[in-house]
Amino acid sequence: MRLFIAEKPSLGRAIAENLGKGVIKDGCIECSGGQDVVTWCFGHILEQCDPGAYDEKYRKWVMDDLPIIPETWKLNVKKDAAKQYKIIKELVEKADYIVNAGDPDREGQLLIDEVLLHLGSKKPVKRILLNALDAKSVVQALDDLRDNKDYAGLRDSALARSRADWLVGMNISRLYSCLYQQNYSVGRVQTPTLAMIVKR
Asked: Which of 14, 37, 43, 160 has the highest CB neighbour count under 10 A?
């Protein structure tokens, strides 16, 4: 069985429509008599763990604990995505190979790859690159599946951005909150953007 994991339901439906004979199931669509199955995420269904998940002492905001730099990064399944994650997990176990159907950018690459890494899947993975959801574009992309390994750089780029956000947000927010004895929220993107607005 070939399993397509799309970034979002609309993308999953577009792929399924062009695989033929789709039967809607719970959290997926079976196509071609079950030879192809399309499922989907809802954007990121995994999220970075808070510092307290790494060490109980980090549940308190203490300046002496900074900086917090995880040696091994942890992800949690989002509560509102737990059911879909379970569906994806069961389908991955049955699949002969998987097709990453994330959007054709670094975040889309990471969205699917991080789920497969979290599941510990060793199944072969292909990549479909869809820039549009019309029938012609989908059919062309289905005929041109690539090796997912060729896009590891895109995934790593998105992963670096995600971890940089965590490091800045968690550490600098705690630093300023401890220094000034009130809650501050500092972000890699939000803070310089806010500074530009204030300056204007």
From this structure: 37
Say which residue the tokens 């399924």 belong to.
Answer: 16
CA–CA separation, 57 vs 77, rounded Å?
23
For Cα atoms 160, 164, 170, give the angle at the middle one, nearest 5 degrees.
Answer: 145
Measure the CA–CA gap between 55 and 52, rounded to whole angstroms.
Answer: 5
In angstroms, the CA 52 to CA 175 distance is 16
CB 138 within 8 A of CB 15: yes
Query: Do the strands 28-31 and 36-40 form a parallel or antiparallel pair, or are they unpaired?
Result: antiparallel
Cβ pair 61, 178 in contact under 8 A: yes
Amino acid in position 9: P
Stated as kind and residue range, the H or E segment containing 23 is: strand 23-25
Each residue of 106-142: b (16+ CB within 10 Å) or e? Answer: bbbbbbbbbbbebeebeeebbbbbbeeeeeeebeebb
* Structure tokens, 128: 């479909």
pTM beyond cutoff 0.85: yes
29 - beta bridge partners? Answer: 24, 38
Antiparallel, parallel or unpaired: β 97-101 and 125-127? parallel
Average pLDDT per block of 10 residues along the chain, 200 residues long: 96 92 94 93 95 97 96 97 98 98 95 97 97 89 96 97 96 95 90 94
Residue type at 11? L
C-alpha span between 112 and 155 (Å, rounded): 9
Tokens of 158: 């998105």
